[in-house]
């Protein structure tokens, strides 16, 4: 299936003629604010700033407290899979990032020696879901988020490390920073990542932990350097994502920065679990992958320095909020996960998108803050846990030892190499069930359904005369029906 675009390295929305361009008018009007709701976010990372944008557009006043001296994002590349590409487009963030966004033509699954095992034309997923699959440097993504946040009036405060949170003295939350500043909010959101201060204030006994001895290196190599190598250069002749699978190790690579750099994630295991970032001897990294495909090995040998990153998991927690529901957690603060499905930041953005719809109803005076927070937790907690599980599973699939299980995995993927569509596949990036559940998920549409069901007191609405429940219509019919023909449109 041909991908629905002309230039696979381009970014933005104007080059997507086969995708619906989502605008404010087509997305519906935000209700006129009736309540003055002041929301504070502790942490201005990707999830926090996106949540700030969505919540501000829902009509609340938004202040983001960031501990760092500057607004920015460390790290390397990140996948904006279709479930969050839709959010970037909906809120105009893709237009700020522009051509720094990259689209690829295909995913190639390989054994560690380079032998092809599975294959996914990315256009097949994009075409089915009506959304692009983008790759981007975290810094460029964060720049775009900050720019849009400021456009929508979000107050972004640096050098504002939170040291005290008082959420029990009254309905308001009082926050004090290391610099001695005091802020008062109706709702405080802990968007401060895996080492969350807000989570420690709420649940001091919770510590994110590595579930296994698995950890990762991250690196970026300029395309110009790779092109000069006659062996390695064959890997970058067209924009692709490549995965080399091996026992207790894998490498994934893809282009970022408008197609000028190659991003690498190099998964491996240590004798004992890794709980913090570690400095390494670069020779150890080079030797770790000595028996891999000579092409990727040449690129690995170009890595000048790196650190070892832990894969920390939080929860599942019984609750994400305080007893008074005036403080709550989102993203990695609530449910950090392993990186094997590239859904950590995506899940955080989904949290913010869903929560914003709930808070819109608080601003409008139709829902209490407690009701909004409870709805957010009830709907989002099981989905976040499912993402954690899928990430565990994909890591296991990619790191099977040589033997019967590995041969069965490879055999199950093999029809992909012949272009045969599969009803299910160990290649979870292209497995139809996983694609629909993970990449086809629309957090804002989910929130709208949940809010309307709440107003209906949980009563299931059916299409007149057809007996079809709304959730089933959404799953099996509404995805292809035009707007005027969708079943149970009022739910």
Strand arrangement in the largest pleated sheet = 6-5-14-15-16-13-18-17
**Estimated share of beta-strand residues:** 15-25%
pLDDT < 50 stretches: 1-32
Described by strand count, sense and barrel closure, the largest sheet is: 8 strands, mixed
Helix content: 25-40%
Whole-number mean pLDDT: 91
Q: Helix tally?
A: 17
Distance between the termini: 34 Å
What is the SS-derived class? alpha/beta
Overall radius of gyration: 23 Å
Approximate shape? globular
Count of DSSP strands: 19
Which secondary structure elements does this structure contain, and how are they paired or packed?
Elements: H1 24-27, E1 38-42, H2 46-57, E2 61-65, E3 77-80, H3 82-90, H4 93-97, E4 102-103, E5 106-111, E6 116-121, H5 122-129, E7 134-137, H6 138-151, E8 155-157, E9 162-166, E10 173-177, E11 182-185, E12 187-190, H7 197-202, E13 214-222, H8 223-227, E14 240-246, E15 249-256, E16 261-269, E17 278-279, H9 282-288, H10 294-300, E18 307-310, E19 327-329, H11 332-335, H12 344-363, H13 369-398, H14 404-417, H15 432-439, H16 443-455, H17 470-476
Parallel strand pairs: 1-2, 1-12, 2-8, 5-14, 12-19
Antiparallel strand pairs: 3-7, 4-7, 5-6, 9-10, 10-11, 13-16, 13-18, 14-15, 15-16, 17-18
Helix pairs in contact: 2-6, 2-12, 12-13, 12-16
């Amino acid at each position: 299936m041909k991908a629905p675009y002309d230039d696979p390295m381009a970014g933005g929305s104007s080059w997507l003629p086969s995708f619906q361009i989502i605008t404010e008018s087509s997305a519906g009007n935000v209700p006129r604010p009736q309540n003055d709701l002041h929301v504070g976010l502790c942490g201005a990372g990707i999830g926090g700033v996106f949540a700030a944008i969505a919540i501000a557009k829902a009509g609340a006043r938004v202040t983001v407290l960031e501990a760092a001296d500057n607004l920015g994002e460390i790290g390397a590349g990140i996948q904006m899979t279709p479930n969050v590409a839709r959010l970037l487009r909906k809120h105009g963030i893709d237009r700020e990032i522009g051509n720094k966004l990259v689209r690829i033509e295909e995913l190639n699954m390989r054994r560690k020696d380079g032998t092809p095992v599975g294959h996914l034309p990315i256009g097949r997923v994009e075409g089915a879901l009506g959304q692009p699959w983008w790759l981007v440097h975290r810094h460029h993504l964060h720049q775009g988020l900050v720019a849009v946040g400021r456009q929508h009036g979000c107050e972004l405060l640096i050098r504002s490390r939170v040291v005290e949170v008082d959420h029990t003295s009254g309905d308001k939350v009082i926050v004090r920073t290391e610099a001695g500043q005091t802020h008062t909010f109706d709702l405080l959101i802990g968007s401060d990542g895996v080492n969350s201060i807000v989570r420690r204030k709420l649940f001091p006994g919770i510590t994110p932990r590595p579930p296994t001895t698995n950890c990762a290196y991250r690196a970026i190599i300029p395309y110009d350097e790779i092109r000069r190598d006659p062996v390695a250069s064959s890997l970058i002749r067209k924009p692709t994502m490549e995965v080399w699978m091996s026992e207790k190790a894998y490498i994934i690579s893809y282009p970022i920065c408008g197609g000028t750099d190659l991003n690498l994630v190099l998964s491996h295991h240590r004798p004992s679990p890794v709980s913090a970032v570690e400095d390494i001897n670069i020779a150890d990294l080079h030797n770790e992958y000595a028996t891999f495909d000579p092409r990727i090995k040449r690129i690995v040998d170009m890595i000048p320095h790196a650190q070892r990153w832990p894969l920390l998991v939080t929860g599942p927690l019984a609750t994400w909020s305080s007893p008074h529901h005036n403080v709550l957690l989102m993203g990695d603060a609530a449910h950090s996960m392993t990186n094997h499905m590239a859904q950590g930041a995506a899940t955080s953005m989904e949290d913010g998108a869903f929560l914003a719809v709930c808070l819109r109803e608080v601003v409008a005076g139709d829902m209490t803050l407690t009701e909004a927070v409870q709805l957010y937790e009830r709907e989002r907690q099981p989905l976040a846990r499912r993402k954690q599980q899928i990430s565990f599973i994909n890591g296991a699939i990619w790191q099977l030892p040589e033997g019967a299980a590995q041969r069965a995995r490879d055999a199950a993927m093999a029809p992909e190499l012949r272009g045969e569509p599969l009803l299910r596949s160990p290649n979870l990036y292209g497995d139809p069930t996983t694609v629909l559940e993970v990449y086809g998920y629309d957090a804002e549409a989910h929130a709208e359904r949940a809010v309307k069901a709440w107003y209906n007191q949980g009563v299931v609405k059916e299409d007149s005369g057809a007996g079809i429940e709304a959730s089933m219509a959404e799953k099996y019919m509404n995805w292809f029906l035009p707007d005027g023909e969708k079943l149970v449109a009022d739910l």
